[in-house]
Specification:
The complex is a heterodimer of chains A (about 270) and B (about 300). With about 270 residues, chain A is mainly α. Chain A has one domain. Chain A has 8 helices and 4 strands. Chain A has a two-stranded antiparallel ribbon. A two-stranded antiparallel ribbon of chain A has the order 3-4. In chain A, a hairpin with a 3-residue loop joins strand 3 and strand 4. Chain B folds into 2 domains: about 100 residues, Ubiquitin-like (UB roll), CATH 3.10.20.30; about 190 residues, Fumarate Reductase Iron-sulfur Protein, Chain B, domain 2 (Orthogonal Bundle), CATH 1.10.1060. Chain B is built from 13 helices and 7 strands. Classes of the chains: A mainly alpha (about 270), B alpha+beta (about 300). Chains A and B meet through helix 3, helix 6 and helix 7 of A and strand 2, helix 2, helix 3, helix 5 and helix 7 of B.
């Protein structure tokens, strides 16, 4: 890292008189709809996820119901208090509160530092700016140059953790084909877990940090044809990152809800074949 | 024939207001056509910049119904004419008159971009690039410098004080074009982090939304640059990899030594040119506050 302290910047003269009226915006379209929807959906998700994480019950459908379905909010279930059958190979004995809290920091961190969600919540919650051509809701602004927002730069590490979780949730989806006492089969719950894992993979692989690490950091594509091919494959996915972000977010909540309803006995997970 | 109302900002640095002009509606027009008809009729002294009328010169940038757009590329039939169509100058830059703004802030920032500095040439004295590497930068060269992205960027639109340390989306795509150039040897990442305000951008993508050339400014330039800055300044693994593999370019301080701000005309240069050519020949921008900026300027 080099310092630029010894190099003087070219000064910019500030404070010229601006044209146009001193109003928040001249836009007449319904610019507030998009940030309002963002706030509504994200608030609903956070409220549901918080309730589900602290409930510490009804997150696993086990052998008693001839199924092996676990909620994505609780997988991997690492605490000693996890219901029998939901553990992987080992447990953490010192964790006493809900096992979801132990792991949710990673997917939460991944989405919180995601380049798309940053746009969504900076616009929706922080009003900075609420929409293009609409005045910022704050008098001063330093962007992501200071603590805590400078921590957004750790996004690539959360991406790597995200890959680990995707592998775990994919294993969960494969295990969902196993139906204790009934052999191998496909139920609606199996499909729900498979779709959930697939959406999480697409969301993760369309991530900007993924695109950078796979090839975007290269200056010479011609010297790295394989990485260039990967970069070219990921770029169209990356262009739809927003779509995959919403789809995977909503579906992960629906997956938890499905498992929760089956586990609590509201209905039985129907076997398809 | 139906009439429409154009509500146009008339004023100068001393102040101004919206003035309504009612003129007949003509099929197939763009906003710039209507402005020209107003100039030819009720307001011959209405000032606006324009040149190509084809969306390629980037001159006629303005804010139409509050949205930064090119006047020549905004069809009237896409705007609701049951209420007045507002046309205001770009908000981010100081006004000169009516719809004309002083965009010289952008040129001050342009001069601080360390230029392309190629590695040594091949044995036959030529520089060669594979087509795949040529293709990557083409998107960024579509920029017509309309400065709509600079105008809409809230970092400087709503916070004048940030102009001193923020180059803006237009120059970020220039930085990305150079940073990803396979033959370039300058490392501009620390410059971007410390001086050009890359960290100020919170990627709300307004620059991408308004770009008339549909350049994916945020996805293909700003975010890749942010990731490259993470490589350089925040990621210990990337730092270690760079040390082991000994991949290094010229440092940001060395790169900055190439920046044209060194050769930029000072305020004294501009004043001497003005006096040499006489007041009538002096360009308005030469007298503008921002153009005088680099004056003391140059990191000599």
């Amino acid at each position: 890292m080099s310092t630029l302290e010894d190099v003087k910047p070219t000064p910019v003269t500030l404070g010229g008189t601006r044209g146009g009226p001193a109003v928040r915006t001249l836009r007449r379209d319904r610019w507030w709809v998009s940030p309002a929807v963002t706030v509504g959906v994200l608030t609903a998700f956070v409220a549901y996820a918080t309730w589900a994480a602290f409930q510490n019950a009804n997150y696993y459908v086990g052998a008693a119901m001839h199924r092996d379905l676990i909620s994505p909010f609780y997988s991997p279930c690492l605490a000693e208090s996890c219901v029998p059958g939901s553990h992987p190979g080992f447990v953490i004995t010192w964790w006493t509160i809900s096992p979801a809290i132990l792991i949710l920091i990673f997917p939460l961190g991944f989405r919180l530092t995601c380049y798309y969600y940053r746009k969504a919540y900076y616009r929706g919650f922080w009003q900075s700016p609420p929409a293009c051509g609409v005045a910022d809701g704050h008098a001063s602004y330093s962007g992501e140059t200071r603590f805590p927002l400078i921590l957004q730069n750790v996004h690539r590490y959360f991406f790597l953790f995200g890959l680990v979780f995707n592998v775990i949730l994919t294993i969960d989806a494969v295990m969902a084909f196993r139906m204790p006492g009934e052999g191998i089969g496909v139920s609606l719950g199996t499909l729900v877990l498979c779709v959930n894992a697939a959406l999480l993979w697409i969301y993760t692989l369309s991530c900007h940090a993924c695109r950078h690490l796979c090839g975007g950091n290269l200056d010479k594509f011609s010297k790295h044809p394989i990485r260039h091919r990967i970069w070219k494959t990921l770029s169209p996915l990356n262009a739809r990152h927003m779509l995959f972000a919403w789809m995977s977010l909503i579906f992960v909540a629906l997956t938890d809800l499905y498992v929760r309803l089956v586990a609590s006995g509201v209905f039985h997970d129907p076997k398809l074949f | 024939m139906a009439e429409l109302t154009m509500r146009i900002w008339r004023g100068d640095p001393a102040g101004g207001d919206f003035i309504d002009y009612r003129i007949p509606e003509v099929e197939g027009e763009v906003v710039l056509d209507v402005i020209h008809r107003i100039q030819a009729g009720p307001a011959p002294d209405l000032a606006c910049r324009w040149n190509c009328k084809a969306g390629k010169c980037g001159s006629c940038s303005a804010e139409i119904n509050g949205r930064p757009r090119l006047m020549c590329m905004t069809r009237m039939d896409t705007l609701p004419t049951d209420q007045p169509v507002t046309v205001a100058p770009m908000r981010t830059f100081p006004i000169i008159r009516d719809l004309v703004t002083d965009v010289s802030f952008n040129y001050v920032m342009a001069r601080q971009v360390p230029p392309f500095r190629p590695a040594t040439s091949g044995l036959d004295g030529s520089f060669r690039m594979a087509q795949v590497d040529v293709d990557r930068g083409q998107e960024f060269r579509k920029c017509i410098e309309c400065f709509l992205c600079q105008d809409v960027c809230h970092v400087i639109r709503d916070h004048e004080e940030n102009k001193a340390r923020y180059s803006g989306p237009r120059w970020f795509i220039r930085f990305m074009e150079l940073e990803s150039h396979p033959l370039d040897t300058n490392d501009r990442r620390e410059l971007l982090r410390q001086r050009m305000g890359l960290g100020m951008c919170n990627i709300t993508k307004c620059c991408t939304e308004v770009c008339p050339e549909h350049i994916k400014i945020t996805d293909n330039a700003i975010i890749p640059l942010k990731e490259r800055v993470v490589d350089a300044a925040y990621d210990p693994v990337a730092w270690l990899g760079r040390k082991i593999l000994r991949r290094s370019k010229r440092s940001a301080a060395e790169a900055l030594a190439d920046a044209p701000s060194y050769a930029a005309p000072t305020a004294e240069d501009l004043a001497s040119r003005k006096s040499a050519t006489g007041p009538s020949a002096a360009s308005p921008s030469a007298a503008s506050p921002s153009a005088a900026g680099p004056s003391a300027a140059g990191p000599a």
